[in-house]
What does this fold into?
Amino acid sequence: MEILFWLSLIVVFYTFLGYGIVLYVLVRIRRIFKGKRVEPRIDQEMPSLTLIIAAYNEESIIEEKIANTLQLKYPAGKLSVVFVTDGSTDRTPELVSAWPGIKLMHTPMRSGKILAMHRAMKEITSEISVFTDANTFLNREALLLMARHYADPKVGAVSGEKRVMQEAVSDATAGEGFYWKYESTLKKWDSELYSVVGAAGELFSVRNSLYTDVEPDTILDDFMISMRIAQQGYRIIYEPAAYASELSSENISEELKRKVRIAAGGIQSILRLKKLLNPFHDPLLSFQYISHRVLRWTVTPFLMLLALLLNIVIVAQSGGWLYTLILVLQVLFYSAALLGWLLEKRRIKVKALFVPYYFCVMNYAVLAGIRRYLKGSQSAAWDRSKRKNSSSAI
It folds into this structure.
């Protein structure tokens, strides 16, 4: 029982903190032997690029998104902009069509984001495609910063950074910003060591010659598209200086809805990317994939519960100061998460408590997502989370 307790605790620690430590050490070792990776120049010849934006009933924000898109920097004659608005029943198509220089792809039937993207990609002739969401805003140099990496023929995809607008962060989701800062650090190290494990749907790009359609029922299309490129032996680069800013979720319930969907998609992705579980195919990529994604989306939430239950049993049966201390720390952590939940219900602002609360919500979402996927009740169609209102664009 004690062996199982320590194994559970070690895996939980490794998943959330240990991998970051190991990754940092490996990056430092790589720098000693090979030096730091050189950043490509931004003034080099840029590839032709198409910016693809899928929008569904976004009339409240679409003009702000278009204005943001038109101020992006890229060489004249090498940038095309496409809005795909399949199934939109509001004024989104009408508002997009009023802008010259922007291509509108619209059909009255809503077939889902994935099929809409497939339809758009069949008409794209550029070397690179960049995908972004209609409710996010890009910094002016985002396209240039991403496109420069394709000068390296080993690069198959480039992921930008997701940023939560700090002035609009809801008290209930204060942990979301903290989580993304930590994730951003891990992605920087992942990218420097070898490859990022998946791209952020808010802003990512692909080399069109490597793009393959994913199954229509795919839940995490951005993750699957990028990882199938990685499976072909190409790197996914992380470019944090190219970022997509979006509003935080309106409340923790909306954030939970989003996380459950991601967790269900995570299980689906693992089942469809079996090749990456084989360390003999691509050892370094498999190590990063299993450490950064697979453990989080599968066993770790269960091991958190198991570690707590075994800790209680061990202390009740034999005591011991070390086991008692660990149990006290676990109880304090989960009590802080519970208190964060109670305060969130009463709209009381104690942001320090929302970090453990958000952490527990994330892991509960994995359990709920696994259950939903196994029941077959998770649709591939995106059920948008409500986000806080803001009129500020980047």
